[in-house]
Amino acid sequence: MADKQAFFDYINNGYTTKGDFINLGAAMLNGETVKDAYVKVPLKTLNRHGLIAGATGTGKTKTLQIIAENLSEKGIPVLLMDIKGDLSGIAEPGTTNAKIEERHAAIGFSYEAKKFPAEILSLSDQEGVRLRATVSEFGPVLLSRILDLSDVQAGIVSVIFKYCDDNKMPLLDLKDFKKILQYTTEEGKDEFAEEYGRISSSSTGAILRKVVELEQQGADLFFGEKSFDTDDLLRIDENGRGYINIIRLTDIQDRPKLFSTFMLSLLAEIYATFPEQGDSGRPELVIFIDEAHLIFNEASSALLNQIESIVKLIRSKGVGLYFVTQNPTDVPDAVLSQLGLKIQHALRAFTAKDRKAIKLTAENYPLSEYYKTDEVLTALGIGEALVSALNEKGIPTPLARTMLRAPMSRMDVLTDDELKNLLKTSKLIPKYNEVIDRESAYEMLTEKIEIANKEEAKEKAQKEKEAARKSTPSRSSSRRRSTSNPWIKTLSSPTVIRSVLGILGKLMK
């Protein structure tokens, strides 16, 4: 009993907060939940980023759902990446059962079913608010890193952007970018050579192949207008709850290049447009990136450096990033070192490599006199996790094996009818789902080439006409040539003509 009381005091002291917080559940000791030993995460530290990890089926998605609900209830908007398609149920209230009631009785507070304001977003042809960005908004540096270009190729992209800026040619979609790439070494090569230096056709060909590769993964649907305004992620409903924005990504699991392109552009846009928050006491926006390995596994070293830089800097804008993945080793060390909240569900040890990974994971958590971390990692049940957070002073909290509360919203997807009704009430779909294709670099260059071709054809026809005129003798010149011949002059003289007429007269007599 003394040990249990000491543990209760240890957790309560370690998770005491002066400001507002979210409650994840209650700590466990010797496999049993200690009632009222609440594991609380201060709102103040939620922009310090975090990790939710664990093997398949251990409850990672439900943990994500729990945190998103509680943030929404505190008036903090959330952005979720729904790759498996099982988060739309947030828009409908959950239902209780005996297991949920038993879980909450053990934790120390009753279960309450609620639904939350939700917006469905889409990167593809799936139903929802269309997310788009223009090529110009990416800029030459970010676009070059996404395409994994060499320094020489990146320099060409910078020249192309400069040319388009100088000539007021908007780069909106990949069609625009491909057109200007071709123009630099074909119709416009002399113009580029004079203004910016000669550009190699082999380099532009290599860039074009990278663009086509990106296009094949569906990026042509993402690049274009109308660009999504990141301020629309910050909406609050009439009850003061933050909107939970759910991006449906079920159809792009096999297109990691598109996913990483979108994520990086979104983070870069947020960093560029959100104001500095300083020590505001609560985050402005929290983003959950499910299946985070899809970003890191396919990323080049330049792209990884860009991601790491944004992760380090974006928290000053009041934005928290939470990576959800099966194994912490899926996330680069440079990113892991920036994370404040770590929620580790069970890991499975089937091979020697798995055991090494578990040992390495255990070393990333604070030491605890109450747990052997590597043993607990394989013994956690569904809906249980090891939690380590930061207190309001930025100090790591005690490691707590936690019985997590149940989600308040539905732990399942919306039906087709429920989804249609949700989409009908959306205020963003009318704003973003209209297809816009205004005049941009493609149309302007096409017109410029056509005018140049017409001028060239006209000039060529004029030259041919002049050449033909010079080669064909005129009547007057023929007449002049004939009169200048001495024999013709003699034969046509009046004396010769009179002599010929006299002879003809005599013959006729």
Automatic annotation (TrEMBL):
Indicate, by first and last residue, each region the UniProt record lists as having compositional bias (Basic and acidic residues). Answer: 456-469
Domain named Helicase HerA-like C-terminal is located at 32-473
In terms of domain of life, where is this protein from?
Bacteria
> Pfam families, from UniProt?
HerA_C (PF05872)
Renumbered to this chain, the signal peptide range is none
InterPro entries noted in UniProt: HerA_C, P-loop_NTPase, T4SS_component
Residue ranges for the region (Disordered) are 456-487
What is the protein's name according to its record?
Answer: DUF853 family protein
Species: Aequorivita iocasae
